[in-house]
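Input.
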Amino acid sequence: MKITALAFLLGLTALSAACGGNTDTGTGGTGGGGGGDLVPCGDHPLDCPEGETCSFVKGDQFACLPSGTGALNDVCSPLVGQATCADDLICVKKSGAMEGTCTQLCDPSQGDQCGDLFCVPIETASGAQTRVCLP
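Output.
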């Protein structure tokens, strides 16, 4: 099962596919630091350091960004280039929904993080993917 997330749901449909390579766009934000290389995380979303989470940054990439404050299952707004959920969570907005939900990221190569849920891919319109725990 695949769920379209983030960029597609924000109305960005002209995106390219792939999830790799660093960019020099920085992390931005509200008064943000920025300027450094972004660390790609789509394939391994739980590898972001403490204080960061894997989030959609632009076009075709998921990268580690400073974590937001949203807790698991909190209502959130999926923003490109700014994480709104806490460590190891990502804001997922299902097609047609008004708001998103902070959802647990997962990586099948690192064991079971989902309990009774399933670790499934979410995908942007361009094909960029990462994985989250869903029923």
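The two ends are 10 Å apart (CA to CA).
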